[in-house]
Design goal:
The protein is mainly α. It has helices at about 1-15, 15-155.
Amino acid sequence: MRNWRGIRQGIGGRGIGRGIGELEDLEEELKEELEEKLEVILEEELEELKEELEEDEELEENDLKEDLEEKLEEELEEKFEELKEEEYEELKKKEELKKELEVELEKLEEELEEEELEKEEKELEEEELEEEELEEEKELEEDELEEKLEEEEFEELE
């Protein structure tokens, strides 16, 4: 109220110049107070905005991290599935190869058995031939001996 009284007095009789000066001073004081209050309010608003921005950035960063983690997890799952399929295919191929090898082994064993049987048969035939030859030789020898004996007997008889 004090300031207003000065304004009234200034207008009323002390002089307009003095009243205007007081008004200007009052205006300056109000401007300064207003600027200080505005500065405080702006600083508070700025701090709030910074905090909100940081929170938003953290949330955004967390969202990005979560998205990245999800993508990585999906990629890992896909890779795992691919590897699993590849491994399954390889295992399948190995099983097929194993079966083929078993069949081939069986064939080879059969061939070997056949060869062994043929060999045994040949050996038996050879043995039989040898025995026959031996028998023939024996018979020949016996025949020769018999002939000799007969000759000797004949000679003795004569």
